[in-house]
Amino acid sequence: MSYEFTSESVSSGHPDKVADKISDAVATYLIDNNLAHRAAVETLVTTNLVTLAGEYKSDKFDKDHIEKLVRGVVKEIGYEQEGFHWEKLKVYNELHGQSPDIALGTDDFGAGDQGLMFGYACNETESYMPSAIYYSHKILQALEEARQTGQSWLGPDSKAQVTFNYDGINKPIGIKTIVCSTQHSDDLSIEEVRERVKALIEPVVQDNIDSNTEWLINPTGRFVIGGPDGDAGVTGRKIIVDTYGGYAPHGGGAFSGKDCTKVDRSAAYMARYLAKNIVALGKASNATVQLSYAIGVKEPTSVYVYADGVVRNEFSDYFKNNIDLTPKGIINRFDLFSLDLTKTTNYGHMGKWNMPWEVVDLEL
Prior knowledge:
The chain is of the alpha+beta class. It has helices spanning 15-31, 63-77, 100-106, 131-148, 190-205, 227-230, 239-242, 263-280, 313-322, 327-334; strands at 2-10, 38-46, 49-57, 80-81, 84-85, 90-97, 115-122, 154-167, 172-184, 214-217, 233-234, 286-293, 302-307, 310-311. The mean pLDDT is 96.
């Protein structure tokens, strides 16, 4: 069975990812390695403006420090442009204390909300991630590395999209189409931009392309005005980029800005851990794990495993009987309250070798 599948990624300077990273940085500050602290931070970015909203429970709230934190994130990403500059932008901080009604359930480490979360793994790539999202991330990481090491003609804002040809489930045979749009300096022609971008991308994808691969680099042409000045950004709008590029289900919840009593985040990490262990241990070529929760309730309301096209109750039963799937259990297993959440923000929350939920250590 042949088919095509496409996934996209966005750079650290994409407006939505600027918002995500600010939310993660502020949440990390508010949580401060304290299991009693809570954060749910939403960010909006637009032309020289950052607005924070949401809730917190923390003894670390300092508006001046948070403003410095926001400016530091924007500076680190690389925005010193007329329409979005780390020194010139305004910061509106509308964060407020957590609702005591929500605290009733989460203070005792019940789930922070109801919801369903999915984890996925397959044996297509070395990171057990689907090919299209894996290479979409790699393309933009190559551009980011070039920008950070001296190629200043590249701007922070960029997007990539990769279409793979498949000859059967989890059997990629090559890249059909590569799309990449990147912000660039005003003094380059579009021909120069396309030539330079292709030269940076080719080494990353060379084992998966041939003469039939279609290249679409900056297909609209000029891309000088970008980032939050070109388009507003909001926390949580790139959830498919954050997970599996659409190749697997997503429960709908966003990750960034949230402490890990929010199962939107922590249970998605646990589901990935379980799915990856199934595949990495050779028990299946692909696996989908679903966990679901009710607000204030510790144990999941359901555990579901689907691997190699079959429901696998032996795995779901094993997980229920041997893995602590409560929010506190997940937090403890991965030491999530000591995590710098900004390390997860860009190029996917899944598939990074240095994240604790990527460890293969189960005995199935």
